[in-house]
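re: the backbone from monday

yeah here it is again, tokenized this time
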């Protein structure tokens, strides 16, 4: 089955919530057909999501967008599109949604009397600087609100577009209110083009790290995901190059393959590395107790077994050699300056 032009996956796998689905014969599939992107506004009732997972270093997050045009074949967020009655495959990449009025909603939620300030993470599920942010500017509008309220935040992105908002980010950084994590999965441009077709180039991400660092922002690198047999051989080079570019912290996530992502990733793998595909899938299983995925707390981010342990040790050693702490700085951001504009310091209420 052929990969669609400029897309991460070739088709729309079955939505797990549908009882019936169609199976197409191989010769019915279009050859290299280009699928246009549609962008639709949605009106959410709330903008901040809260979680109690022990596996993530934050309690609150905002995802300005549903779906992601970067088209990363491994993306763990793909199955969320099925809640919209869409596919985790092509639909996730070309049927996109943005949250209309996000900034006004954020102002409303931050102004509530019972709101307690905790760092908000932007772009956890889908990239907050994906291509449509150029025109929609939802992330920029949210950053303006956070700066106005002196509210701490952390960004995760693999896009160079984050540099557009350097003015707001510098204002936040001057008050110890922001950290930026740049996702770097590979230094191999050919692998990037296949695995993350519409994301920034490896050199572009390194330049972004350097620019952010030189502008005085705390910037870290997130190697997510590490895929045994695909990019684990690059751990030391990625950490070294990112440290040279100016990162001050580092983290990683082992590949996660929930629901239909298993099928999507394996389909891509058989196209990209057909002779190694079975071996790589077995390596992934070896990190997940013999399964392709284990969602158990304490395991889903880093895996188990000897291969997962080796990856962890190599990553830690690479960080130690480059003087990088493993923890992220979001818990070190300033929460004491938060205030609702026109009022005193919010902390005076407690």
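seq for it, each position gets an aa:
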């Amino acid at each position: 089955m052929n990969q669609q032009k400029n897309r991460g996956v070739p088709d729309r796998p079955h939505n797990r919530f549908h009882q019936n689905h169609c199976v197409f014969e191989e010769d019915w599939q279009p050859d290299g057909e280009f699928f246009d992107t549609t962008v639709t506004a949605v009106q959410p009732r709330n903008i901040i999501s809260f979680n109690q997972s022990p596996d993530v270093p934050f309690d609150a997050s905002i995802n300005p967008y549903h779906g992601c045009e970067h088209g990363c074949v491994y993306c763990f967020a793909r199955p969320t599109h099925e809640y919209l009655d869409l596919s985790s495959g092509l639909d996730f990449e070309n049927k996109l949604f943005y949250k209309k009025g996000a900034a006004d909603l954020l102002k409303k939620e931050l102004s509530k009397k019972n709101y307690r300030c905790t760092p908000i993470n932007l772009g956890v599920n889908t990239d907050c600087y994906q291509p449509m942010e150029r025109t929609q500017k939802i992330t920029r509008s949210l950053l303006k609100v956070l700066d106005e309220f002196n509210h701490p935040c952390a960004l995760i992105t693999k896009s160079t577009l984050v540099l557009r908002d350097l003015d707001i980010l510098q204002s936040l950084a001057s008050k110890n209110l922001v950290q930026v994590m740049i996702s770097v999965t590979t230094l191999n441009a050919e692998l990037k083009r296949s695995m993350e077709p519409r994301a920034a180039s490896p050199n572009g991400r390194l330049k972004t790290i350097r620019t952010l660092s030189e502008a005085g922002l705390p910037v870290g690198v997130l190697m997510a995901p590490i895929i045994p047999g695909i990019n684990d051989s690059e751990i030391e080079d990625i950490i070294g190059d990112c440290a040279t570019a100016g990162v001050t912290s580092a983290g990683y996530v082992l590949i996660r393959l929930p629901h239909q992502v298993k099928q999507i990733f394996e389909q891509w793998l058989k196209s990209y590395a057909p002779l190694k595909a079975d071996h790589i899938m077995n390596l992934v299983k070896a990190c997940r107790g013999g399964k392709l995925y284990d969602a158990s707390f304490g395991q889903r981010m880093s895996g188990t077994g000897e291969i997962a342990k080796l990856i962890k040790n190599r990553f830690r050693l690479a960080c130690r050699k480059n003087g990088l702490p493993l923890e992220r700085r979001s818990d070190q951001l300033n929460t004491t300056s938060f205030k609702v504009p026109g009022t005193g310091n919010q902390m005076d209420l407690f």
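The longest strand covers residues 219-226. The beta strands are 38-42, 49-50, 60-62, 65-66, 95-99, 120-122, 153-157, 178-183, 219-226, 249-254.
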